[in-house]
UniProtKB/TrEMBL annotation:
<feature type="transmembrane region" description="Helical">
    <location>
        <begin position="46"/>
        <end position="69"/>
    </location>
</feature>
<feature type="transmembrane region" description="Helical">
    <location>
        <begin position="90"/>
        <end position="113"/>
    </location>
</feature>
<keyword id="KW-0472">Membrane</keyword>
<protein>
    <recommendedName>
        <fullName>ABC-2 type transporter transmembrane domain-containing protein</fullName>
    </recommendedName>
</protein>
<feature type="transmembrane region" description="Helical">
    <location>
        <begin position="209"/>
        <end position="227"/>
    </location>
</feature>
<dbReference type="GO" id="GO:0016020">
    <property type="term" value="C:membrane"/>
</dbReference>
<feature type="domain" description="ABC-2 type transporter transmembrane">
    <location>
        <begin position="31"/>
        <end position="224"/>
    </location>
</feature>
<dbReference type="InterPro" id="IPR013525">
    <property type="entry name" value="ABC2_TM"/>
</dbReference>
<feature type="transmembrane region" description="Helical">
    <location>
        <begin position="153"/>
        <end position="172"/>
    </location>
</feature>
<keyword id="KW-0812">Transmembrane</keyword>
<dbReference type="Pfam" id="PF12698">
    <property type="entry name" value="ABC2_membrane_3"/>
</dbReference>
<dbReference type="GO" id="GO:0140359">
    <property type="term" value="F:ABC-type transporter activity"/>
</dbReference>
<feature type="transmembrane region" description="Helical">
    <location>
        <begin position="119"/>
        <end position="141"/>
    </location>
</feature>
<keyword id="KW-1133">Transmembrane helix</keyword>
<feature type="transmembrane region" description="Helical">
    <location>
        <begin position="21"/>
        <end position="40"/>
    </location>
</feature>
């Protein structure tokens, strides 16, 4: 990967993000939830885990997809695909700003909730895997969408299922809906984050991490195939 190209793409993505109202609005969602939960009596570990899921869903996936769709609308993505930049340069460069914004939101949210994390290293690993997964999903949505309106239409059901899935599952735990939602990445992330925050033995949430990694690998492969097809079509 070329450091100069990545730096130039980061600057461009920063300017695109700060002028996009939708991007700025989704950043507020998890921080607002963190403030809300911090003022309520309840289990902070659950609150923190839910806010973490909302952060990677609404910030990582949304920002990634919106910025990519905006690039397509301006017809600058085609120019980028035809540039000397490699596939790795483009994919990493387009993801840096989404990851940076998510990390900032995660840190701010954690400070607001002030939850005591028993296994910070494992929690960091879980969040890193989730970041990669939702960057891939956001990229995939952005590549498949023709414009910003279509991107939003695709993102709404995905963010609802992945973001609010664990909450919905609680009310349908004995039905087929709960069983289906139990296999979504949000549910695996929720269980793993709760276990890491409470310092449970790794064996108790190992399966959740395996499923989360499986989702991530599948999303990366599908995104890479889609990206290559878009590149060849140009």
């Amino acid at each position: 990967m070329n450091a100069a190209r990545l730096s130039a793409m980061l600057v461009k993505e920063y300017h695109d993000a700060k002028s996009n109202v939708q991007v700025l609005s989704v950043i507020i969602v998890p921080i607002f939830l963190a403030i809300l939960y911090s003022r309520m009596d309840g289990e902070l570990d659950f609150a923190a885990s839910f806010v973490f899921i909302m952060a990677v869903t609404f910030v990582t996936m949304y920002v990634q997809a919106l910025l990519l769709a905006e690039e397509k609308e301006k017809n600058t993505l085609q120019v980028l695909l035809l540039s000397p930049a490699s596939s790795a340069d483009i994919m990493v460069g387009k993801s840096i700003i989404s990851v940076i914004l998510t990390v900032i939101v995660l840190v701010v949210s954690m400070l607001i909730i002030d939850v005591n994390v028993a296994s910070p290293i494992m929690l960091s690993v879980i969040l890193l895997v989730a970041l990669i997964l939702f960057v891939a999903l956001g990229t995939l949505v952005g590549l498949l969408s023709e414009n910003l309106v279509q991107t939003t239409v695709y993102l709404l059901p995905l963010s609802f299922v992945f973001g609010f899935g664990p909450m919905i599952q609680m009310y349908f735990s004995d039905g087929i809906i709960g069983d289906i939602l139990g296999y979504t990445p949000g549910s695996f992330m929720m269980e793993a984050c709760l276990a890491a925050i409470n310092g449970e033995a790794f064996s108790s949430y190992r399966e959740d991490i395996i499923w989360l990694v499986g989702w991530t690998v599948a999303a990366l492969i599908l995104t890479f195939i889609t990206f290559k097809k878009k590149s060849l079509s140009k």
